[in-house]
Each structure stands twice: as C-alpha cells, then as structure tokens.
Amino acid sequence: MKMKITPFCLVLIVFCLCAVLGTVLGQDSPFVFSHHLATKTPYWSPSTANTNLPNCKPVHIEHVNRHGSRWPSKGDTNALLQTLGKLRGLSDKITNPQYSWIKNYSIPYSLESESLLSPNGEIELYNLGRNYLSRYPEIFDIPFDPNLFTLQSTQSERAGRSGVSFAFGVWEGKGTVSNQSFDPFYIWSQTTSLDIVLRSQDNCPKWMNEIYSNDTTYEASSAYSTAVLPQIAQKINQILGVSSLTPSDASALYTACQFDVILFNTESLWCSLFNQSDILFLEYIDDLDVWYANAYYEQINLEVISPLFQDMVSNLDNVISLISKGSSVVPLAYLRFAHQASISPLTAMLGLFKGNYTLNANNYNPNRKWFSSRTSCMEAVVSTQSTGRLPFSLSLTLPWSSFFYFFAHFGRLKQR
C-alpha cells in the first residue's frame, strides 16, 4: 500500500529544549533553582500541552540532541580542588555550623571521569528514547532497520553513549538477541577533523579566528563577571565567617553547585551558598558567553551551522520525494547526538528567542527571551518533522515552500 500525504508541504519544526514554553512566557514562577544553571541545567519540562495536530501523521523525524548530563571537565575539577584546598586551610575559621561538613568534604568525582557521560545522563537519554517511542509509535515501534533509521554522533564519548542510551530506550526488547531480546543498532561518527556537520565550528577557520580566538567575543561576559562576582564572593565569605575567598573561588563553587544538581540531584551543599539573585546573575554570565560565541552576536555564528541545517533539509526533501514516487522504502528518522555548539547556533539560525535587543554587560533583563538554561541545557533537542509534535515543546508549522523561502540563504538550499 502506497503512503499518501496531502499536501506534501507540511514541515513542523520542534524544539524540545528545556521548558521552551517557559522561555516564551518569561521566567518560571515560582522560581525553581535547578532551572537556572545555564548550560549545565538538567533537562526539565513544564506541564503537558496539547500535542496533537488534526489530520496529521508523522512520517519522518530529523533530530539533533545535545548529550546528557556529564561529569565535570578537568578544568572544573581542578578549580574546585584549588578552592577546596583554601577552605580546608580556613576550616578552623568557618564559624557557621551549617557548613561544618566542608571540613571533611571530598570531591565525589575524579579527573579520570572528566567530561564523560554520567549515570544521570544515561537515564535522561534513555527516558527521552522511551518518550519518543510513546509519542511516535508510527515511527519507532518497529525493530531497528538501518535502511529506515540513521544514528550519528560526534566522536565524543558523551555524545556517542547518549545516542546508545536513546536508542536503547527506543528499541529495548524489540530484537532477537539473548533472552533480553536485545536489538543491535548502529551509530556512526565522522572523524572530528573532517566533521563539518556536527563539528562545523571546529572545522571552520574563519569562525575559529573571528569568534573563538577573538578576545572581543568574551568582553561582555568578562565585564559582567567583574561586576557581580566580587559581591557574590564577599557574601559567601560572610556566610562562612571567612574573608579570603575570591571571585574565582565563587565561580568554582557555583560550578560545584551545578554539578551537585545534575549529578546527584541535591541543592543542599554548595548550592546553599547562593540565593536566587546570585543564581540569576551567574546564569547571565553564561548566557553572554553563549550569545556571543554561539548565537546572535555575529552572523557567522548562524552561518557556521548551515551544513547541519542543509543536511536536515536535504533529508526531508528526499523523504518527500520518495513518498511522492511511491517508494517502498522511506527513511523514518535521522538521529544526531552532539553538543551545545550545535544546538545553540541552530536555534539562533531559526530566529528563536532573540528579542529586540542585544545582550550585553549593561542590560541585564530578567524577562529576556534568551536563556542558555533553556535553549542549551543538557539533553536539549531540535527536531524537524513532516508532522507531529513533541511533548513539552514549542512548534512552528509552515508549508514546505515557505520553509525554503525563509531559510534558503543558509546553506544554499535547493528544492526539488
């Protein structure tokens, strides 16, 4: 039986980011601490909205996923070790009994696990896979078939294992291997130095020179850090009853707080040193970093992601062509697992959450549209689909021809 879609024009762009609905409406109310940890925010979702489109059936999904929650980098761990060493030297001066635990505190992660996918990250992606299976049984409720499904990741361990965790959530129990009915699936990766789709920034000399290696890119976040971190450090000194913690120490303790949340689901240790205002100001430092290095600051930030966007659109166009020709084999999903550096520019390239102003060190706006904690959180997703809608997401629907018209200037898109 041939599949027929009328019309062959509907494209639904879906953003399964961290509470995108909350991003549009402004800050979450009441304030939730763990929702404002910038790019280290764990994935979360607001209340379910209507997820059905009338007379629509999903036929193909193009998917880009940030990896799940990871262990700290070597730099993060070393910074905390340095601050912790200072605190141990001050242990006899810490007068606040609420923080007596600091005297015997040891870091619950090692340098050997730097930046690897954490157990929480595995669970996040597994659950997302189960979510997709539940929402899109027309696509995923069949055994894995390499003719129908393509999985791609960067050569990063955390991205690759995120893909494995997602795939296990989708195809768990659908195979014939062992009494567990394991269904083997396949994920491919391009060599990092050749990967212009998922590692486009790393392989673009112009972006590396004009953005990554350009001190101007970091001036705004540096200026804002200089303005707010000394005050936060002084407040922490007062809480603990010491006097020698510096802005760098405050930054290290904030990072420790972020990882307390995403790794151990706790806010009772390092996070207790920060109040709501502190967290919002610290979040804005990362927002400035992402805005300038990966989003709206320069046009090249948007253009550099065009190979990925072009790949997604080319696949969608091919699927529409195959369906219109009555092909018996039509790919169902292309699933990619990458990093913040793919999600943020792709979101910006589509014109989302920009607002009518440029973020800078002097215009902090608590009601701004751009929050890295929501557009670039752990496990953030951008998908383009023929039809359908992801739970807890913002969706934009437009005809296929209009899709090409609006975005043709990125990647020299050509419609069949």
Can you offer a commentary on this structure?
- By secondary structure, the chain is an alpha/beta fold.
- The protein is 41% helix and 9% strand.
- The chain has 14 helices and 7 strands.
- It has helices at 20-25, 74-89, 119-135, 137-140, 157-171, 205-212, 219-240, 247-264, 276-294, 299-303, 306-324, 340-349, 372-375, 400-407, and strands at 10-16, 61-66, 149-153, 187-189, 333-338, 381-385, 394-399.
- Strands 4-3-5-2-6-1-7 form a 7-stranded mixed sheet.
- Helix 5 (157-171) links the parallel strand 3 and strand 4.
- The chain is globular.
- The model is unreliable at 1-11, 19-26, 387-397 and 411-416 (pLDDT under 50).
Straight-line N-to-C gap: 24 Å
Apparent shape: globular
Helix share, percent:
40-55%
State mean pLDDT (0 to 100 scale): 84
| Number of helices, counting only DSSP H or I runs of 4 residues or more | 14
Give the low-confidence spans. 1-11, 19-26, 387-397, 411-416
The major beta sheet can be summarized as: 7 strands, mixed
Total strand segments: 7
Tell me the strand order in the biggest sheet.
4-3-5-2-6-1-7
**Portion in strands:** 5-15%
What is the C-alpha radius of gyration, as a whole number of Å? Answer: 23 Å
Instruction: Specify the structural class.
Output: alpha/beta
Topology pattern, helix = H, strand = E: EHEHHHEHEHHHHHHEHHEEH
